[in-house]
Amino acid sequence: MEIRSTTAQDFDVFVDTTLTAFAMERETPAEGDGAWWSAFEMDRSLLAVTDDGRPVGTAGAYSLELTLPGGALVPAPGVTAVGVLPTHRRQGVLSAMMRRQLADLREEGDILSVLLSSEAVIYRRFGYGPATYTQRMTVDRHRAALARPRAEETGGGAAPRAGSVEVLRRAECGDLLEEIYDRYRRTQPGALSRPHRWWSLGAGQPPIARAPRYIAVHRDADGVADGYASYSVDKDRTLTVDETITVDDAAFTALARFVLGHDLVEKVVFKHLPPGHPLRWQFTDYRAGELGDSTDWLWVRLLDIPRALTARGWSGDGELVLEVDDPWLGEHGRYRLTVQGGKADCAPTSQAPDLSLDVSDLGSVYLGGTLPSTLVRAGHITSHRPGAAELADALFRAERTPHCLHWF
Ligand SMILES: CC(=O)SCCNC(=O)CCNC(=O)[C@H](O)C(C)(C)COP(=O)(O)OP(=O)(O)OC[C@H]1O[C@@H](n2cnc3c(N)ncnc32)[C@H](O)[C@@H]1OP(=O)(O)O
Known about the structure:
Elements: E1 2-5, H1 11-21, E2 46-49, E3 55-67, E4 73-84, H2 93-107, E5 112-116, E6 129-130, E7 133-140, H3 151-154, E8 163-169, H4 176-185, H5 196-201, E9 214-220, E10 225-233, E11 238-246, H6 249-260, E12 267-273, H7 279-282, E13 289-296, E14 298-302, H8 305-311, E15 318-326, E16 331-340, E17 343-348, E18 355-358, H9 359-366, H10 372-377, E19 382-383, H11 388-396
Parallel strand pairs: 4-5, 11-12, 15-18
Antiparallel strand pairs: 1-2, 2-3, 3-4, 5-14, 6-14, 7-12, 7-13, 8-9, 9-10, 10-11, 15-16, 16-17, 18-19
Acetyl coenzyme *A (ACO) binds at residues 21-22, 79-84, 89-95, 115-119, 121-122.
């Protein structure tokens, strides 16, 4: 079997092989998940081919950008279209593709890669760890009065501002959604860019895919669009919000108020909220919103530990020695992480470690969405001195809960 790079000529065979592995059919941009496969990058993809020339496995990568704590934007290959034909599974095809892909990404200078995992048991062995989480909130609309927040008097937090909401059809939005999304993702740790090509091809779930949707667009007092909610209402009178994308909490509150005030609706479902989202605290009735479908979303794999650790912003000051095992790449390193004034230095050291961990666990804590102390308690990370886990918690923390709702 050979693992080979693809070219534009391989597009159809690549898509067919991927869809067969997922037991899916091609959809058009206006249907369900749209033509999610249409943005595959053939100059970053791999085909596994048998000795007699049959394609049996695929792995791709999208050229995305990830927002780190502190606001740095770094290239993040988004691993996608990983599939092996049902006839060729458990024979090491995926392992061979992962080995080649990680080597290629490193050679291209990437410091990390990311993916969404179809099954949670697949990717840890390759060094990926779950790093952001998301959940659904179902709100009984008739219990959903929003309390008047104390911050309203002082103008802080999510206090309402003058602004307006306009309802458009998806087809009327032009580049508006793309522009708002791009503003949002630059300040949200864990968020990914959405290349222009995706929007123009309709390559993704709604509202990237042009399936029929209503789009509530929020504008600030100057008329500048600063948020949108993409939604549909089904026959059961449930209004489902695909995503609420806003540049700040006040715009989110205004859009939440709008969808929760929608007549002829019994329930409002927000499909994606980060853990700890303030919406729940805004209801007069704390139990008006029911949380469910809590799941991992973005998985992170560090490829260059010192560069990755110095790229992100940090909170607090302190020093930790991390001993990191990378069994898949056969690497083992010790790094002294010195954090001061929001920045870190990271250099190899022979000092005794404070924490020992696997590279997949470092991926999990990297964006600040998983507490190192949780992984100590779970037996993933070993702490060698009292206080080391608590110091790691304080340093790795992000300015806001990392969240990714981009599906790829
Ligand atoms: C980013 C994304 O695209 S996620 C999408 C992943 N793809 C899918 O879910 C599509 C359907 N599934 C498939 O195509 C395949 O089953 C794949 C790609 C998940 C796995 O491919 P395979 O070629 O069978 O994997 P491979 O033989 O290299 O397995 C490597 C190891 O992982 C384990 N493994 C692989 N897949 C799974 C799984 N789904 N569940 C549990 N263990 C698994 C294997 O048992 C093996 O373990 P071992 O080394 O201890 O024996």
